[in-house]
């Protein structure tokens, strides 16, 4: 049996097309609603500076910083040093700096990591 090729034009012909003006007007109205505000405000607890422990300060910084920034710096360190498992990206490998934070474990799940890091902030 020979396979027949279908051109892209025949595949696209069956799909309904939306004019740019329709899509733009919908997106524009959604932006206007968001600009007016829905009453949702950022949680101040995430923005409150926390003091990292000495072990965590080796990775992120020793000055107080918000949890969001702490997490960004921790992930930047993990990516920079290639500590994310290539097969299972949820697993984080511990190097010499991260081992004390991870409780001496060689590898932790990214969700466990946040729980372990919380023990190292005040």
Q: What topology does this entry show?
A:
Blueprint: H1 8-13, H2 20-36, H3 44-47, E1 49-50, H4 54-57, E2 65-66, H5 67-80, E3 91-93, E4 107-109, H6 110-118
Order the strands across the largest sheet as they lie in space: 1-2
What count of helical segments does DSSP give?
6
Gap from first CA to last CA: 69 Å
**Any idea what the shape is?**
flat
Helix content: 40-55%
CATH topology of the domain at 44-118: MDM2
* Assembly of the depicted chains: single chain
Class by SSE composition? mainly alpha
**Low-pLDDT segments, ≥5 res:** none
Question: Mean of residue pLDDT?
Answer: 80
H/E series: HHHEHEHEEH
Rg over C-alpha atoms, rounded to the nearest angstrom:
24 Å
What is the makeup of the main sheet?
2 strands, antiparallel
Brief summary of the model shown:
The chain is mainly alpha-helical and 122 residues long. Helices cover 44% and strands 8% of the residues.
Structure description:
This protein has a domain at 44-118: MDM2, CATH 1.10.245. The protein has six helices and four strands, in the order αααβαβαββα. The chain has helices spanning 8-13, 20-36, 44-47, 54-57, 67-80, 110-118, and strands at 49-50, 65-66, 91-93, 107-109. The chain has a two-stranded antiparallel ribbon with strand order 1-2. The longest helix has 17 residues, at 20-36. The model has no long low-confidence stretch (mean pLDDT 80).
What characteristics describe this protein?
two-stranded antiparallel sheet; flat; MDM2; mainly alpha; 122 residues; two-stranded antiparallel ribbon; 6 helices; 8% strand; 44% helix
